[in-house]
Design a protein that fits this description.
The protein is an alpha/beta fold. It has seven helices and eight strands; from the N terminus they run E-H-E-H-E-E-E-H-E-H-E-H-E-H-H. It has one domain: Aldolase class I (TIM Barrel, Alpha-Beta Barrel), CATH 3.20.20.
């Protein structure tokens, strides 16, 4: 198995995306995001595949990865499956699964990672829950044999830190990035919060103390200072060139 998602992972919602989905994803990538999950399941396959190609082009500039929600990787090799199926999971390079409780976690077989949700009340799916809260998240992570991403209602640096401290390999966010006036700045704030939270945990692990969140966790926040460009019509971010910390 290769890398699994960590840090801040963005889930797409083209309806909520302010100024267009490609613009928002490019901004999030400029702010440090390296993992994006393409949803948009209502689109015809051809349109969704074209969108996947465009988003992969944006992520390719920084070595990022696009994960496709559903069993069809749309020309790639990374998918994220719903809790309902299919079972057994397909044999792609990277397979994730949505989980919400112990029963669903125990159903995992060859998946490489899971999401646990909702951690907090969420505007995207109001009434969906009940929320796990950080203590519920912590209990489920302890029994999971794969790395876990926390999902649902995560909007603040404090929430990111709480999820990492509970053992999450990263956080998956949707609304706070999609609806952001400045997705690059919002992403930079959240990715910086992740790096600040995970670094002391890694330090403790090296000194024989408490273990780090599940799965080879290194802060995945790149050097900030990326700029957006309209190259090839993709609004791709340039590779980071500065060392200024934008996570304010």
């Amino acid at each position: 198995m290769g890398r699994v998602p960590s840090g801040v992972v963005v889930l797409t919602d083209r309806i909520a995306a302010r100024g267009g989905l490609e613009r928002v994803v490019a901004g999030a990538v400029a702010g440090g995001v390296r993992w994006v999950v393409l949803r948009e399941k209502d689109l015809p396959r051809a349109e969704r595949a074209a969108l996947a190609t465009d988003l992969r082009a944006i992520l390719a500039d920084v070595g990022g990865t696009l994960v496709v929600a559903g069993p069809d990787p749309l020309g790639g090799d990374a998918v994220h499956l719903p809790a309902a199926g299919p079972y057994p999971p397909p044999t792609h390079r990277l397979v994730g699964r949505s989980c919400h409780d112990e029963t669903e976690l125990n159903r995992l077989t060859t998946e490489h990672y899971a999401t646990l949700s909702p951690v907090y009340p969420t505007r995207t799916k109001p009434g969906y829950g009940p929320p796990l809260a950080t203590e519920g998240l912590r209990k489920l992570i302890r029994i999971s044999h794969v790395p876990v991403l926390a999902l649902g209602g995560i909007e603040t640096p404090e929430q990111v830190a709480a999820c990492v401290e509970a053992g999450a390999a990263g956080v998956a966010v949707l609304g706070t990035i999609m609806r952001a006036t400045d997705p690059a700045e919002t992403a930079a704030i959240l990715t910086s919060a992740y790096a600040e939270a995970v670094t002391p945990m890694l330090t403790k692990t090296r000194h024989g103390g408490t273990r780090s969140p599940r799965a080879g966790l290194r802060p995945t926040v790149p050097t900030q200072g990326s700029s957006l460009t309209a190259r090839s019509g993709h609004c791709r971010p340039q590779p980071p060139t500065a060392t200024k910390d934008e996570g304010r």
